[in-house]
User: Fold this.
Amino acid sequence: MIERSMCLVCLDTPTGMELNDTNRALQILHGGGYEKNGANRWYDKPMQFVVGRDGVCGTICEHSPFDGIVLVQCTEYLLKYMKNSPKKLVRADSVSELPAPRRLRWKCSPEIQGYLGSSAEKLQRLVNNLDFTVYKFKNHGKEFIKKQRMSPDAYIQVSLQLAFYKCHGKLVPTYESASIRRFQMGRVENIRSSTTEVLSFVRAMVDEKNTVPIKKNVLTTSGLAANRAGRSSHQLLAEFRSRAQEDSRRRYEWCLTGDLPCQDQRGC
Assistant:
């Protein structure tokens, strides 16, 4: 059953750590190492639902079989179900009868014990080598951005470019996914925010000679504004998805027919 399952429920024991946002996120991700709940993570499964006795609950998604939008929709469905369901849980008729859980007792040879110990040490090194902090920006949220007739998504993307430019003096080819699941076998395509308009914007923002009105004017022409050439950001995104799917389809055809030089057709 474990091998055939698509998702797992990980029942965690309390770690004794302070339950702040950062520690909760780390606990969900790797369980705190092999001395805590690290051995209770199953990264070969697409989804893991973590439920801890100390109240730490969350979900882990393995990106290979599906994309983040699937996890988002699944989580939103569960939250909506819990909110609208009666306070007293009622057993559904469709629930199948499962055998009572029982503890599995393993017989491991010294060789297997050595492998387990080596894996535990490797996991702990990965845990210790991870720098992770949850930071909440409280100055404003997406509703404020929308009132400025801007796309919250584009706002964040350009903010990343501005921050990187201040540190390194150039734009960075960030990855922003656009879902193309409307097409058969479609998953995601890449949107690049390192455009000429964004470069003009970040240069204007870091130029101390520019006044606020000048920076505001550059902001409205950088692609952040909701209306650009009479089209909304949603229309632009829809057009991009259609073009991206067509480009991917043509590339696959070229690789299959041999018209396009390709070192490894499996990677096309």
Q: What stands out?
A: The first helix runs from residue 21 to 30. The beta strands are 7-12, 47-52, 57-61, 176-179, 188-191, 227-228, 231-232. The chain has eight helices and seven strands.
